[in-house]
Known about the structure:
The chain has a three-stranded antiparallel β-sheet with strand order 1-8-2, covered by helices on one side. Strands 6-3-7 form a three-stranded antiparallel β-sheet. The chain has a two-stranded parallel ribbon with strand order 4-5. It is built from six helices and eight strands, in the order E-E-E-H-E-H-E-H-E-H-H-E-E-H. The chain starts with a strand and ends in a 6-residue tail after the last helix. The longest helix has 15 residues, at 137-151. It has a domain at 20-122: D-Maltodextrin-Binding Protein, domain 2. By secondary structure, it is α+β, with helices and mostly antiparallel strands.
Amino acid sequence: MCFSIAPEKDINVLVSQRAPIFALVRSDHPFASRESVSLADLAAWPLAIDHQGVTIRQLFDISCSLEGLVFEPVFVSNYHAALQSFVRLTDAVTLTGYLTVRSRLTPDGLAAVPIVNPELHQRTLQVQTMAGRTLSQTLQAFVELLTGAIHDPALLD
């Protein structure tokens, strides 16, 4: 299972679902009550973000370039739990996929707010195998479990 923004050679995609990027903030942050935000809205707030090379960061950088926006992150990490903790303890904003945080929103006092910039909707969550590979019954059952969880994350609660 991985996040993808482009097709890959010799890969068979078994399941694919859009995985747009959200702004993650504390539940008392001014953005928390909004229906959506834009990247331009984020400019007024401290930004905590993933390292380059992560799909969220790649799409963020592309979107900023297209919009002519420049951000100076106050915190950069490759560990998403650290980004979430930083947001929980400050007024900062980070970017996330909803599936990544959905079960932690209420317990951690966080809110995930949709971002309207279309480039941030180009990511998909995929279950992939090597092209030409035959899956064992055990792996097929696991793929079915993953597929069910992707379509209904509450199955794993």
